[in-house]
Design a protein that fits this description.
single chain, alpha/beta, TIM Barrel, Chorismate Mutase Domain, subunit A, eight-stranded parallel β-barrel, 13 helices, binds phosphoenolpyruvate, binds manganese (II) ion
Length: about 375
């Protein structure tokens, strides 16, 4: 299913100076010197299209640095005049919107902690009624696609058509190498619902440490993400917020050079012919898989009728264990991932049980 939002293409509001599109800048504006020197070095790389900086920072615990506030907007203004880079800041309430607009900020973004709260999102959207400014909406902290979609709908409802989503990972109770789990499937679901919505990835907040940023950045590009937002600081070791996940402008430049930008479709006819041939093979195998699944389920039905007529239970754990074991070792021998095979077999098994249960129930109705 697709949603009907009025969304302008990214190219209508953002000129990428380089591929991939990169939005970069410090997690927080700290001092005028820190922001300006970072901005100048970023601009000098020629690879950054937008300067970001947090002016108001949502902190988990009180007493931590909560952003430099309005004065930072003056520094951003100066950075923009001196470097020519458009600017973006996070807004979390109507007052932030008013101040950011007054300071000439070019693009607004809504943070993960705001997207979770429809009251906050609506307050920001209401403050933007009648204003023509791009808004980028980060995913909510928790893996809830509806909240993300809902926030985009609220902004579109307020007349914002220059919209983008930012995938910044999701909070998870499980321990992992990431600060926030990428959960790509949610971003893919969002792209499926809103195919025209530009989607940007924020590897910094997914990773939580700079070492993993190249890996996640490449992964994002391979998933047809439209751009990257990466935190960059003149001296990350002394950053006031998110020190571990920021990179110097020079490191950012290297990181970008090492990324491979892939294209959704091949431009070379030889490559697209080869792809078309391979896709044909896949189509044929998919048809065969479906044919075989249908044949399998017909046999399952026959077994169900036989069990019903002879008063045998549907679920026989021994038989199921045997199936899993035999098939899993066969699959392993063919270099298939064990977890994938097990999940696949479990799905088929669940469908078989469902079919046999329906057959048993039908008998009860007849009696
Ligand atoms: C940020 O971009 O600095 C930030 C606070 O991000 P998030 O809302 O993704 O946590
Ligand atoms: Mn940050």
């Amino acid at each position: 299913m697709k949603l009907n939002l009025n969304i302008e293409p990214l190219s209508a509001w953002l000129k990428a100076s380089h591929q991939p599109l990169v939005i970069a800048g410090p997690c927080s504006a700290e001092t005028e010197d820190q922001l300006l020197s970072t901005a100048h070095l970023l601009a000098k790389t020629g690879k950054v299209s937008v300067l970001r900086a947090g002016i108001w920072k949502p902190r988990t615990r009180p007493g931590e640095f909560e952003g430099i506030g309005s004065i930072g907007l003056e520094w951003l203004k100066r950075a923009k005049t001196e470097t020519g880079l458009p600017t973006t800041v996070e807004v979390a309430n109507a007052k932030h919107v008013e101040e950011a607009l007054k300071a000439g900020v070019d693009i607004l973004w809504v943070g993960a902690r705001s997207t979770v709260n429809p009251f906050t999102v609506q307050e920001i959207a209401d403050a933007l009624k009648g204003v023509d400014i791009p808004v980028m909406v980060k995913n909510p902290v928790n893996p809830d696609l509806q909240l993300w979609v809902g926030a985009l709908e609220r902004f579109n409802g307020a007349g914002i058509t220059k919209l983008a989503a930012i995938s910044r990972g999701f909070s998870s109770y499980e321990k992992s190498a990431f600060r926030n789990e990428p959960m790509w499937e949610l971003t893919i679901q969002l792209k499926t619902l809103l195919p025209h919505l530009p989607v940007i990835c924020d590897p910094s907040h997914i990773c939580g440490n700079r070492e993993l940023i190249p890996y996640i950045s490449q992964k994002a590009l391979d998933l047809e993400i439209d751009g990257l937002m990466i935190e960059s600081h003149i001296d990350p070791s002394v950053a006031w917020t998110d020190a571990k996940q920021q990179v110097t402008p020079a490191a950012l430049s290297d990181l970008i050079d090492n990324l491979t930008v892939r294209h959704p479709e091949a431009t070379n006819p030889a490559v697209s012919d080869k792809l078309a041939e391979l896709r044909k093979q896949i189509d044929k195998i998919d048809d065969q898989l479906i044919q075989k699944l249908s044949e399998r389920l017909k046999i399952v039905e026959k077994i169900g009728e036989y069990k019903r007529d002879n008063d045998i239970t549907i679920l026989q754990l021994n038989r199921w264990d045997e199936i899993i074991q035999k098939r899993a070792s066969f699959a392993k021998a063919l270099s298939l991932d064990e977890e994938f095979t097990t999940k696949f077999l479990e799905l088929i098994h669940a469908e078989s049980i469902k079919k046999q249960t329906a057959i048993m129930n039908a008998k009860q109705v007849v009696q």
